[in-house]
Design brief:
mainly alpha
Length: 155
C-alpha cells in the first residue's frame, strides 16, 4: 500500500524537476492512468468485501464500488485539471467508506490508519497537481491578456 504512493510522489518530483524527453503532459497522463487503476482497485476491494461477507449492512458497497470504478475511468475523459478534481473526490469517498467500515468493525484499526495516511498523501499529491495546473492556466490567460493589451486590443 505504501509503495503504491511512489508513482504519485514521483509525478510530483518529475513536475518540479523535469527530465529531458519526459514532458509534463506525459507525466500528467501517466499519473492519471495510475490514479484510475488505484481507484478501481479500491472499489474492487469493496465489491469483493460485500460479495464475501453477504451482509445486509454492506449492500451499498456494490453500488458505490461500481460508481467509483466508473468515476475513475470517466475522469480520464475529462480535461486534465478536472480529472484530478474527480480523482481527489474519488479517493476521499473511498476513505469515508473505509472509515465507516472500520466503525462497523469490518476492518481492523490498523487498516483504517493505513488507509487514512496513504489517502491523505494521495490527496496532497493531487492537490499539488491541481494547483500547478491552475497556476499554469492562469499564467497562460494572463499572457494572452497582456499580448492583447500590447496589440492595442481592448479585452
Amino acid at each position: 500500500t505504501c509503495l503504491g504512493l511512489l508513482p504519485f510522489l514521483a509525478s510530483e518530483l518529475l513536475i518540479m524537476f523535469p527530465v529531458q524527453g519526459l514532458s509534463a503532459a506525459l507525466v500528467y497522463q501517466l499519473v492519471s492512468y495510475y490514479a484510475a487503476v488505484i481507484l478501481s482497485f479500491l472499489a474492487g476491494s469493496h465489491w469483493g468485501l460485500q460479495l464475501q461477507r453477504n451482509d445486509s449492512q454492506l449492500n451499498g458497497l456494490f453500488f458505490f464500488s461500481n460508481m467509483m470504478a466508473l468515476l475513475a475511468w470517466g475522469a480520464l475523459m475529462a480535461g486534465i485539471p478536472s480529472r484530478f478534481v474527480l480523482f481527489l473526490l474519488g479517493f476521499l469517498i473511498q476513505l469515508v467508506i473505509d472509515i465507516k467500515l472500520n466503525k462497523m468493525n469490518i476492518h481492523p484499526a490498523w487498516y483504517r490508519n493505513l488507509r487514512l495516511y496513504v489517502t491523505l498523501t494521495v490527496v496532497v499529491c493531487l492537490l499539488y497537481h491541481i494547483c500547478i495546473l491552475l497556476f499554469y492556466i492562469f499564467y497562460q490567460l494572463q499572457c494572452k491578456f497582456l499580448r492583447q493589451l500590447d496589440d492595442g486590443v481592448r479585452p
